[in-house]
Specification:
Length: 664
């Protein structure tokens, strides 16, 4: 049988033949590229002050690249919402910076050998299946620039972000009912977008021609390419100043320090053993709502990890039991390069095991976490191992849920010493024609509340993408035909608990012209779960024509919901889950929530057993009545699961109150 991947069976028509003939790389492409190894011999001595200088320079270059992109890009998603990331990688393709996740360099080096690269080259890709797990959906466009020192590649600067439109069936390139990637937009495998400083005008024209927003796409790509080229020059100066051997030894020292820190301060907090938990996406845009399972079996061992004598702790994350790939676009290609992208995506959850919140914030997530984690994937054809050309544009439902599944399975191991659940990203927006007859697209990534923690309430309206934000009202009202009549906290949305879940957004938009509303969101049925007695938060909800004769709730997956001029769209995002028994929340904290408007008087009684009177500015808690109500509720309740999923779980599970894995 031929080994030429171009002659392999078509997986869309003959899955069995494809699986039988596929090379080891799930992308079906050659894997003969060097990656993941050290740059200096183990034990090489490096001046610790120099390591600090190198680490600070890397962070500075990364920040400078992101600042340049933000200041020179054009689309609201990149310039204003800041939905993009930069990253720096060494010539072994290891991620060196730790303030943010990033895509992977692997697919570029796979298709363009390092020895054939030139100064001024810029590589581009957005192909989900050929990205080796680094790109989740087609609107995420990635540019990669090699860094040179004395004529040789020594590192890479990379940026990827979510762009307005790259074609496909609907504006925004995220059709909620897509059945193949072909409906989702233009898919570009790794190409050389700039050759020795000369842009490939033909490729740029193809991409802009396929976009509904060609001007902003062209401007964003120019900003990203220019910023990464600038970053490559800055990083090259570091090698010139200190020499290649010294800088590369510092790279190894930075990653070694991360490995040792996570081994000592994080993994050691998890008792040896095997733990199982699962959570679910609720719909895929094609089938009726159902439980799409993501399951983790976590095994912690105290030996077998990397380091001297291979004696350190390690984690095995096994995804066996994850549901079959969905018909709709909630699949994520995770099983590439040993799950390299997912390891770095999930590792921030483990930081919650640090000694303090302050220490947690100091822990970077770079390639140093990769050797500590082994991932085991099920066979091809699941939500995490989809077979091309399965659609992926709403893969956030899966990769966000995996953050919660890892938090939940670790919580079982450490008696709940992990935060409750959060769902902090969903895409909403409107599109149509403005008063001048010009087409527009406004899309926004709104955050939600984070989960309560064993020491504090969750945070309100956070975004899982670092440094990203909601669009400023002044900007949107001046550019798009609507008014923002309210932007505030969704009262009572945070899950009740000893420590309350954070609140989501409530946003009211009044349309000034007829338009269409779009939404790619999950957690409209299944709420963010509470833990150790904490209750689930309130789910996502969109209402069109609020208070009007045509008031209706819109499905969380919507491509073209009609909205008439004058109608109001109300968007309520998710609240985080609660932590601990809400009947143990001190009265003064409930009173404070009443005064701040985070909890209503009815919510205080229903969720916390607190009877209060007065006004929002001057609430008064009736302590005797509240004590009696709490005693009554404690006496009435029976055994409770360790996790509370909210009432939506019963709807999709056939009436079950909790899953088998929810009990300790």
């Amino acid at each position: 049988m031929s080994t030429d991947p171009r002659l392999a069976p078509d997986p869309a028509t003959d899955v069995d033949a494809y699986l039988a003939s596929a090379p080891a790389n799930p992308a079906g492409l050659p894997t003969a590229y060097e990656h993941g190894g050290r740059l200096s011999p183990a034990g090489t001595a490096v001046d610790p002050i120099l390591v600090e200088i190198v680490q600070g320079t890397l962070a500075s270059v990364e920040m400078e690249v992101e600042t340049a992109i933000a200041r020179t890009s054009r689309s609201p998603m990149i310039r204003d919402a800041h939905d993009f990331r930069a990253g720096i990688h060494d010539r072994q393709l290891r991620k060196l910076t730790g303030r943010s996740y990033s895509a992977l360099v692997h697919p570029v080096v796979r298709d363009f050998p390092i020895g054939e690269m030139h100064e001024g080259d810029v590589f581009f890709h957005n192909d989900v299946y050929e990205s080796e797990g680094g790109i989740g959906h087609l609107p995420d466009l990635c540019v990669t620039v090699p860094v040179f020192h004395e004529g040789e590649v020594v590192a890479f600067v990379q940026a990827f972000g979510h762009h307005d439109d790259i074609g496909g069936a609907v504006p925004g390139s995220m059709p909620s009912n897509a059945r193949t990637v072909f409906e989702e937009g233009l898919s570009v495998p790794p190409i050389k977008l700039w050759d020795s400083g000369v842009p490939n005008r033909a490729a740029l024209r193809i991409m802009t021609r396929n976009s509904r927003m060609p001007d902003s796409l062209a401007a964003d790509l120019d900003a990203e390419c220019s910023a990464c080229l600038m970053g490559a020059r800055r990083l090259g100066e570091l090698f010139t100043r200190y020499g290649r051997d010294t800088v590369e030894a510092a790279f190894d020292a930075i990653l070694d320090a991360t490995t040792e820190t996570y081994r000592r301060e994080v993994l050691d907090r998890i008792p040896d053993g095997t733990y199982v938990w699962e959570d679910y996406a609720e719909h895929d845009g094609v089938d009726e709502p159902m439980l799409h399972t993501q399951r983790i079996t976590l095994t912690k061992t105290s030996t077998g990890g990397p380091g001297p004598g291979d004696g350190g702790p390690r984690l095995v994350i096994d995804f066996t039991g994850t549901s079959a790939q969905a018909k709709g676009p909630i699949n994520h290609c995770g099983d590439y390069v040993g799950g390299n992208f997912l390891k770095k995506w999930l590792a921030p959850i483990l930081r919650n095991l640090a000694d303090s919140p302050e220490r947690m914030a100091e822990l970077d997530v770079n390639e140093g976490v990769v050797p500590l984690i082994e991932m085991r994937f099920p066979e091809k054809g699941t939500l995490l191992t989809p077979v091309y050309p399965a659609p992926t544009n709403a893969r956030t439902f899966v990769i966000l849920r995996l953050l919660g599944v890892l938090a939940g399975v670790v919580a079982k191991a450490v008696d709940g010493r992990m935060p409750a659940d959060q769902e902090t990203i969903r895409y909403t927006g409107v599109y149509g024609r403005d008063a001048h007859g010009d087409d527009y697209l406004m899309r926004e990534v709104l955050g939600g509340g984070s989960g309560g923690r064993y020491y504090a309430d969750g945070e309100d309206t956070i975004h899982v993408v670092p440094d990203s934000r909601n669009l400023p009202t002044e900007f949107t009202e001046s550019r798009f035909p609507f008014r923002v009549e309210r932007l505030g906290l969704a009262v009572d949305s945070g899950g009740a608990g000893r420590y309350r879940g954070g609140l989501g957004y409530e946003k009211h938009i009044r349309m000034l012209e007829d338009a269409h509303f779009m939404s790619i969101a999950d957690r409209s049925i299944l709420a963010c779960w509470g833990v150790k007695g904490g209750k689930a938060g309130r789910p996502f909800e969109v209402t069109v024509d609020l208070g009007g004769p045509d008031e209706r709730t819109v499905d969380a997956l919507a491509d073209a919901e009609p909205v008439r001029a004058g109608q109001v769209i109300r968007i309520r995002t998710t609240g985080g889950g609660g932590w601990g028994d809400p009947l143990e929340r001190p009265y003064d904290e409930v009173e404070r929530d009443l005064r701040w408007g985070k909890v209503s008087f009815d919510g205080a009684r229903a969720d916390y057993g607190v009877v209060a009177t007065g006004t929002r500015d001057e609430p008064v808690v009736d302590v005797a009545a509240s004590d009696a109500l709490r005693d009554e509720r404690r006496a009435a309740r029976g055994p409770e699961p360790f996790f509370d999923r909210g009432p939506g779980y019963a709807r999709l599970s056939g009436g079950a109150r909790a899953a088998d894995v929810d009990w300790l």
